[in-house]
Amino acid sequence: MAKDIFGCNLRELQELFAPYKLPRFRARQVAEWMYQKGVHHFEEMTNLPKALRPQLDAAFTIQQPVCRDRLDSIDGRTSKFLLAFADGTAVETVLMRQPYGNSVCVSTQAGCNMGCAFCASTVHGMARNLTTGEMLAQVIYINDALREAGEGKVDTLVIMGSGEPLMNYEAVVAFLRLLHEPYVLGMGYRNITLSTSGIVPSMLLLAEEGMPISLSVSLHAPNQELRSQIMPINRKYPLADVIAAAKNYAEKTGRRVTYEYILIDRLNDGEAQARELVKLLRGQLCSVNLIPINPVKERNLLRPGRMRIDWFEGYLRQHGLTVTVRREMGKDIQAACGQLRNKHLQEQ
Ligand code: SF4
Asked: Is 342 touching ligand 1 by the criterion CB < 6 Å?
């Protein structure tokens, strides 16, 4: 069976091509074709020796995901893709056309088994981890589409789609290193944000990788009890340890950590929680991103009214925290992660 080479780095390609007596620089040429030029057959790689191309086509494949569904928001800024891989597993990938460039949100697992109360991705559990190549394929798929449409390229990446990236640690780190390579997209680590529900041992490891990506920690509650209610993983990795690991990350990398806080009506958006949150975070190199919940019909959790959101934001700001409220994008196309995939799973 032909081996899929999409997701291989230069060294891996060189090893695979060694039996064909290809000079080492040919690996870079192949990488540029498949990662930068949207070419998926050796026959079309015109700078490879003509006689060799059929042999390579017989021995290797360059797998591409198939787009099963696509939704574009009315304002044209957000596009959501349901991409299916060779075994039929499908994940969501989102393109957000931001004022500062094109941002892509990738999935790292098909589904998720972290069980966060507000999240549609976890409703059907986790099917499997994605491979390095499948994560990269999501970015390259959108990069190719942008280039063909004359819309530029992918500028920034957020790892906030379905799945807990730090539960798929090695494949995710390999994916980020690959993305950074000049023969892929040459993406700066500072243009990458990884969001975690707080897998403490992996947060500590990540701080040692020498990759200064931005770390975003899903907090969603200011105390152990409420956080465990919203995020079951908090029973395994308690809030205090998550905060300590986030501080360690900021110290080691010099990068400000962002705490994501989903505002859920009458659950975590009251004065008591605002006060606790200030006490918990004051003095840290961090910012708080408030995210009014995209209501999830399976979970019966509601979005607070505008006044409650404004009050919560104002309270944090007045008490010295750096705070932003996430702008709504793509509400009309079910932007909350997992909703499009769930719809397809239900239809099957
Ligand atoms: S929020 Fe993230 S970690 Fe939590 S269940 Fe959803 S995908 Fe998993």
From this structure: no
